[in-house]
Amino acid sequence: MGWQELYDTASSIVADHKGILAADESTGTIKKRFDTIGVESTEETRRAYRNLLFTTEGMEDYVGGVILYDETIRQAADDGTPFAELLAGKGVVPGIKVDTGAHDMAGFPGEKVTEGLDGLRGRLEEYVELGARFAKWRAVITIGDGIPTDACLHANAHALARYAALCQEAGIVPIVEPEVLMDGGHTVETCDDVTGRTLRAVFAELYAQDIHLRGTLLKPNMVIAGQDATAESPPDQVARLTVHSFLRHVPALVPGIVFLSGGQSEVEATENLNAINQVGGPWPLSFSYGRALQASALQAWRGDAANVETAQAAFLHRARMNALATAGQWSAELEEAVPA
Ligand code: 13P
Question: What percent of the chain has pLDDT above 70?
Fold first, then answer.
């Protein structure tokens, strides 16, 4: 597969103000989500929930790609169609989470490094067979006393670039995700500083390992104060600092920047994305949200088949609000049309 095809895949995912649904919660993470609605996490409840999301009529107008988990890409919809085939049939690109999680970094207390490179070439080949056309690898950067260290930034950036190279070799678009966590009481200025250091480390490694930037997507955090900070960041400040940081650190030919929601509420994540697009930049600035696309849908579903339609309406609403935000055309009044 050529570079042009990688670029075409990456840019089709974010075309026409579309974004990504991150539905790649690991078995441990989806259990935590199901615990909040009192639903037991079994292979079948996980399948039923993903079926609900992926069969939502009209989601393809707002969602250009869906990130799946290993179990999910092997599962099928109620009518027996494999999920990857169902999505591709609607024009939604199937993706796959390929890292195996963030683990404590030896010698660096409080910091993590993401694993999953061993055997990745073979796993990618299988995922291509199963229909995946893009992948995700999430590095986690924690802000705290004396951290992140340069060593942690470098180790994670190096792994991201090695993953990206293997993906491109397999004809898969790598989503490069260095997430600076919102955990803690740090200021927006600290987040700005750490986000800048992180992006510099990541792009230095992407260049060093000869990654074809036009065949990647970047999935970063927004520049925003920590969740326990005394001063919240208003959307215009988030937007200004976020776009400024990316203008400094991210080449204009990257075909898309797709933000994670990282613990922001649904409306907050939409409002900030909208403000970011009102400032604008040379790349599509879109979303790759997990929680901020699914929270209302999960609450509406509660594991009951009778609630599927209401839950789908809630998911479709969030997808539409975020697509409007990628055009800078969202407003709070539009939220009032929230389905019951
Ligand atoms: P959140 O939007 O819930 O942060 O999840 C996105 C994601 O895929 C993190 O890796």
Answer: 99
